[in-house]
Every structure is written in C-alpha cells, then in structure tokens.
Design brief:
Chain B: Keywords: Membrane, Transmembrane, Transmembrane helix. The complex is a heterodimer of chains A (242) and B (122). In chain A, the strands form 2 sheets. A 4-stranded antiparallel β-sheet of chain A has the order 2-1-3-4. Chain A is extended. Chain A has 242 residues and is α+β, with helices and mostly antiparallel strands. Chain A contains 9 helices and 8 strands. The mean pLDDT of chain A is 86. With 122 residues, chain B is an all-alpha fold. Chain B has one domain: Four Helix Bundle (Hemerythrin (Met), subunit A), CATH 1.20.120. Chain B is elongated. The mean pLDDT of chain B is 92. Classes of the chains: A alpha+beta (242), B mainly alpha (122).
C-alpha cells in the first residue's frame, strides 16, 4: 500500500469536493453565519478532514456523509426561501435587547448574553454609552443591530440639502501593463482616450503602468512600476528577526 | 449555451463522476485484467494443490497468488479500507507459511478465510 499516494488522491478529491460544495451552498454560509451554520461548517470540515486522511476506512462513506450534509443544507436553504414560518423556526428570530433606551434584562437572559458582552457589542459599533441607544436588536447571526437616538445620529447629506451626485465605482483600466478592454468599454472610453490621459501624466508606454483606474469622481488614477522618490515604509517597531 | 458555460457544468460533473469511480472502483478493479493478476484463479489453484497435497505446485501458486495480489492492491488501494487490504496480505503470508510447513489443515483454514476476504473486498 502506498499510503502517501492514497492520501494524495483522497486529499485531491476532498479539496475539489469542498470547493464545489461551498460554491453550491453559496454565500449564505458566510453572510448569515447563524449558530446552525457555524456548527454545520465545523461538521463539514471535520468530515472532509476524515475523508482526506483516515485511510483506515473507505473514502466513499465519508463522501456520502459530506454529500448528505450538502443536500440537507441546500434543502433547508430552499425551505427557508419558500416558507417564512419554517425559516424562522430554523434560523430563530431577532430579539430586542434594548428599547426606548432601556436594557431588557429578561431578553438578555433569554439569549444568555451578559451585560458586559452586550456593552462590548455596542463598543464594536463605536457606541460607548448605552444612553445613545434607542433600540438594539440581536440578529439570528449573533450580531447586534443598533438604532441610535435621534440626537446621536450622524447628519446625512440630505439634512444639509447637498446636491445629489451620480455615484460611480472605481473601474480598473490597466493591470500590470495590460489594458482591460472590457472595462474601458463599460465606461464608454477608448484606448486613444487612455493614451491621451497617460501622455498628460508624462507616460508614453502603457507597459510602464502597474495600475490605472477611473475613480468615482471620473478622474484617472495612475500608478507606475517605477516607485522612485518614495522611501520604503516600515511601521514595525521591532527589529527582528521574526 | 456557450463553451464557457458548458465547461462550467461539465468540469464539476466530470470531477464528481471521476471521484465516485475512484471511490467505488474496488469491486470491479479487483478482477483480473491479465494472467499475472488473477488472484481468484491462483487462489483456487493453490486450494486444489493443497487438497491433493502437491506441495511444490502449491508453493509456486501461492507465490503467484502473492504477486497477483500486490498487483491488484496497487489498483484498489484508493477505494478499499486499509485494514481489509492488510488482512488479505497477512492471510496470504499465513497460507504460504502453512504450505511451506506442508500443514494441510492450517492451509485449508487460511485459504477458506482468504476466499471469504477476497469475496468481500471492494
């Protein structure tokens, strides 16, 4: 028996199975990481590890277990989409922890969160005083959503009647000297336009450009490979070695 | 459907099929493809020579059985439990030992066990 070779083959099968299954489960596992998702993730990882390394048993039985977990996960996702009631049963419901500035001790107890932990959650949202909170809700994924009292809410552009501007995203045009034509077309620009803009910045060859992008304000950001005039930035306060 | 989309479904599907074939291939990969890997054939020949107490022929067949098993082992090791493989290897060694000692009873016990193990493997 070539155990290393067997493990190699099983590890390859496991790696790509996990990759494929993670894509099938979708982003929900990461976005809404409920307690169930957390435990499910750990279990899937554990089965996958056994599939790759426990050569004292057949790979197929572990693969079946992995597949059953995938099928059940997708099934519950579909049930959650189709039936709101079952979705709430499976994922639990949000719980109000603070209302009208009052901490609801009974609800804190119900979800077994101490006041210290709750304060820590508020601090992680840059709220250092419970007096600022109008309502706080514990979400099924364990995060706390907070609505601040009116007086503590930041002013928005609408409050100062600022003129609305069209919101754009940054679009990459050159990566490592290569023009991304698809992005140029998306922003209704041509290579000629790009070359002209680069010439204005004293760049004659696109191969000199490490990164170029159209910024949200429609201006062109360009970074060339040659970083002359910039010192190495070292923020470490430890000499090393590491 | 364009080629990219076809490949997007084709590659994962092919991967799952190949993985399934690798993980379940033991039951059919154990069968012989050439004369040199005919475990079942050498096993029954060894058994017959032991019954008729033709020890030199039994020794030769048991050796061929051992080398045939190692050929099969290389093919089925990805889909079969390691303990099952080790037990068969061990039992073949016991058969060889019993034949070398010209112990008909022990050889028959081990051959009988080996036949059962061979039947179940895969």
């Amino acid at each position: 028996m070539q155990e290393a070779l067997v493990t190699l083959v099983r590890a390859i099968i496991t790696f790509f199975t996990i990759l494929l299954y993670a894509r099938l489960i979708g982003k929900q596992l990461i976005r809404n990481f409920t307690m169930f998702d957390y435990i499910n993730g750990i279990t899937i990882g554990s089965i996958a590890a056994t599939l790759a390394t426990d050569i004292s048993s057949k790979a197929f039985v572990h693969w079946i277990a992995l597949t059953v977990f995938l099928v059940l996960t997708i099934l519950l996702q579909v049930i959650g989409l189709k039936n709101r009631y079952l979705s709430k049963v499976l994922d639990s419901e949000p719980v109000v922890l603070m209302d009208k500035g009052q901490i609801l001790e009974s609800n804190l107890e119900k979800v077994r969160i101490t006041k210290d932990e709750f304060m820590q959650q508020l601090r992680s949202k840059s709220i250092f005083s419970p007096d600022e909170v109008q309502t706080a809700i514990l979400e099924p994924d364990g995060s706390v959503s907070v609505l601040q009292k009116f007086a503590f809410q930041p002013a928005e552009k609408g409050d100062v009647k600022a003129k609305p501007k069209r919101v754009m995203i940054t679009t990459e045009l050159i990566m490592d000297g290569n023009v991304i034509k698809q992005n140029l077309e998306q922003r209704n620009k041509t290579e000629k336009w790009l070359q002209k803009k680069l010439r204005e910045k004293g760049i004659t060859d696109m191969k000199q450009v490490a990164y170029a992008a159209i910024l949200p304000n429609d201006s062109l950001y360009v970074d060339v490979f040659d970083d002359k005039g910039v010192d190495d930035v070292n923020i470490s306060d430890y000499e090393g070695p590491y | 459907m364009n080629t990219r989309k076809i490949l997007l479904y084709l590659i994962p599907t092919a991967f799952v099929i190949i993985s399934l074939v690798i993980m379940t291939s033991g039951s059919w990969l154990k069968h012989s493809f050439t004369d040199s890997d005919d475990v079942s054939g050498y096993l029954s020949a060894t058994s017959s020579f032991v019954v008729s107490e033709e020890w030199s022929e039994a020794v030769r067949n048991a050796e061929q059985l051992d080398s045939a098993w190692h050929e099969v082992l290389a093919r089925i090791q990805y889909s079969v439990e390691r303990d099952d493989l080790a037990t068969i290897t061990e039992t073949i060694a016991r058969v060889q030992g019993a034949i070398a000692a010209e112990d008909r009873a022990s050889a028959m016990i081990e051959i009988s066990l080996l036949e059962r193990l061979w039947e179940d493997v895969g």
